[in-house]
Design goal:
Strand content: under 5%
Order of helices and strands: HHHHHHHEEHHHHHH
Number of helices: 13
Helix content: 55-70%
Shape: elongated
Number of strands: 2
Radius of gyration: 24 Å
Length: 273
């Protein structure tokens, strides 16, 4: 069941989209991914013949990452893994990202799937970072998150805000995200704001934008650009088309529409001042 702060939308966007923090769900999920992909795989902690994989791995880890004497490692492979676990769950949030970036780089050839596997976990838990070419990079910067948070807290245009908030909730639901309807709500927020600016509550988005353009409040190129984007959601395979089979959508699709529509809503609001 959602907490009071979640139901009332009182949690800040910066906390929900984890940009400068890491909740226990995300930390646990990253550890579980490492556990299933590396720690518990055959030959890592124990090998019937020869050297277990944890030996050269821990040597490099102590030498290049921890920068401690290699002979300071605990005796026994299980003890080494215990120390890694203690570090992982005791370090700061950004050090977790340092750690997994190091691990992904170490296994680049042996486990080329690891970065994408981590990206799936990071996306599911709404981390603000993803692996790109072996390095973690921002997918949402602080300015974008602050812009979104400000828009979700705007009480002046309640109907517009309601669409944006619902779009964010559908995108941010970790258990059952609904990217299709998140995009619909994001587009609906622009439609609602355009109707207000056009002073025509029954206008379609296209008609409303044409009215705004004629009043000199919207550059033709900007209008055309957004109508093309809106057309993506209206064509035969688009979001608003009544189809039995939903189109394949990703968190990136929903995030893009949420941010671009929030930005365009803010632009339209500015035309009323």
């Amino acid at each position: 069941m959602k907490s009071f702060s979640q139901r009332k939308n009182l949690k800040p966007v910066l906390e929900i989209i984890q940009a400068d923090s890491m909740n226990i769900d995300l930390r646990n999920s990253i550890w579980n991914a490492l556990d299933s992909a590396i720690w518990t795989t055959k030959g890592f902690a124990w090998a019937q013949y020869g050297e277990a994989e944890i030996t050269p791995f821990s040597q490099i880890l102590w030498f290049d990452y921890f920068k401690k004497p290699i002979d300071s490692r605990p005796d026994g492979n299980s003890k080494i893994l215990e120390e890694l676990r203690a570090y992982f769950f005791g370090c700061k949030w950004f050090e977790v990202y340092d750690f997994i970036e190091f691990v992904v780089a170490y296994y680049e050839r042996q486990k080329p799937f690891l970065a994408e596997y981590m990206n799936q976990i990071l996306a599911r838990e709404l981390s603000a970072y993803r692996f790109v070419s072996g390095h973690l990079t921002d997918i949402m910067d602080t300015q974008e998150l602050e812009m979104l948070e400000q828009a979700l807290g705007d009480s002046k245009f309640a109907g517009v805000t309601a669409h944006l908030r619902r779009g964010f909730e559908l995108y941010a639901d970790r258990k059952t995200p609904d990217y299709r309807n998140s995009i619909k709500e994001s587009i609906s927020s622009v439609e609602a704001m355009a109707r207000i600016v056009a002073e025509n509550p029954k206008a379609t988005l296209g008609d409303a934008l044409k009215i705004i353009e004629k009043r000199g409040l919207l550059h033709p190129a900007l209008k055309d650009g957004f109508l093309k984007l809106y057309g993506y959601t209206s064509d035969e395979g688009g979001i608003r088309h009544a189809m039995l089979d939903e189109p394949t959508l990703t968190p990136a699709d929903a995030r893009y529409f949420l941010l671009s529509c929030t930005s365009f809503v803010n632009y339209l609001k500015a035309q009323l001042t």
